[in-house]
Design goal:
Purple Acid Phosphatase, chain A, domain 2; alpha/beta; six-stranded mixed sheet; 7 helices
């Protein structure tokens, strides 16, 4: 019998998670590059991948343009200035469409046409992103899993379900096998918000969707929950309380102080408490970056600063059903 024995080496999985980039070109490119930068084998994008606004750029003739950006009317007189504007809009996560004055006036009175153009531009950007992932990650062995969030239109999300991809995969509604023993399930819907986003359901309906996915997992102790909505009252869901009766919704204050509350999901918290997965990943509440523990489950919301072109994320390592370490990132 040997005096010394070596413990079997754990097969560590290194994993990078980010969420809520809302169409930001710069932030998404940083996300794709994070695979090599952080030396991980798995990238996960946790939802709200499409942008929020469409910015019309009015062509005024003689190479001149104008646009209203962040409540300011700006004028542009050269192609270089126009390109700089387009880059700014892309970083902010917005979409741009150059049009003549007559087209702009017609579209102002046609909400359906505006919505259709918005979806077309969102799909076009997402198609470019899928191509980018396929090119950048080709031959690296890095897998990129993407789910939609509550802000993502179902029609636009069809883009990430493209067949034949080698590096980017839709993970919503799937049991993803990350290695021989660990799995991940993803649910991108959220409970109702004041903004009536495309993929909102009641908390009860969200719980049903979660349990339908949980039923497909053989070993929940080695499972990752990738749920866009955070668990209620977990510190990962703390945000200002809003008055839903105003347009746009306004923050509620008392004695001169903004009232904060937990805006997360009761059904998400119940699922974590009941099933105790290894890890639970969340987003949705951009300002509530943090780590919490519910029972044995490590719960993470990396937060979001997409409008500044900043990628917030978290690098994690796990093995044998345990989170071995994590590091919040910003860059």
């Amino acid at each position: 019998m040997p005096l010394f024995s070596r413990k079997p080496r754990k097969n560590l999985v290194r994993f990078f998670f980010a969420t809520d980039i809302h169409g930001s070109e710069r932030t998404f490119r940083k996300f794709v590059n994070a695979g090599k930068f952080y030396d991980v084998s798995v990238l996960v994008m946790g939802g709200d991948i499409t942008g929020k606004l469409l910015i019309p750029i009015i062509e005024e003739g003689s190479g001149h343009y104008r646009a209203t950006l962040q409540d300011r009317i700006e004028h542009f007189e050269t192609e270089a200035e126009l390109q700089h504007l387009l880059d700014r809009i892309g970083t902010l996560g917005f979409y741009a469409h150059i049009m003549e004055e007559d087209e702009f006036k017609v579209m102002q009175g046609d909400r359906a046409a505006v919505d259709a153009l918005f979806r077309d531009l969102a799909r076009q950007r997402l198609e470019v992103w899928v191509d980018l992932v396929e090119t950048r990650l080709a031959g690296t062995g890095i897998k990129c899993y993407v789910t939609g969030g509550n802000d993502d239109d179902p029609d636009v999300l069809e883009v990430i379900r493209r067949e034949g991809t080698q590096s980017l995969f839709n993970c919503e509604g799937q049991v993803v096998h990350l290695d021989d023993g660990h799995t991940m399930i993803s649910v991108g819907y959220s409970t109702p918000t004041p903004w009536k986003t495309p993929r909102e359901v009641s908390d009860e309906e969200l719980g049903i969707k979660i349990e339908d996915m949980v039923a497909q997992v053989q070993d929940l102790g080695r499972c990752i929950f990738n749920f866009h909505d955070p668990p209620v009252d977990s510190t990962l869901d703390t945000c200002p309380m809003l008055d839903w009766n105003t347009d746009p919704p306004q923050q509620i204050s008392k004695a001169g102080q903004v009232v904060l509350h937990g805006a997360g999901s009761t059904s998400v918290r119940c699922a974590i408490e009941t099933h105790q997965p290894m890890l639970s990943l969340h987003g949705h509440i951009h300002e509530s970056r943090g780590v919490a523990t519910i029972g044995r489950t490590v719960c993470i919301n990396p937060g979001s600063e997409y409008g500044e072109g900043v990628l917030r994320g978290c690098v994690l390592t796990f093995a044998d059903g345990n989170v071995e370490g994590y590091q919040m990132t910003r860059g």
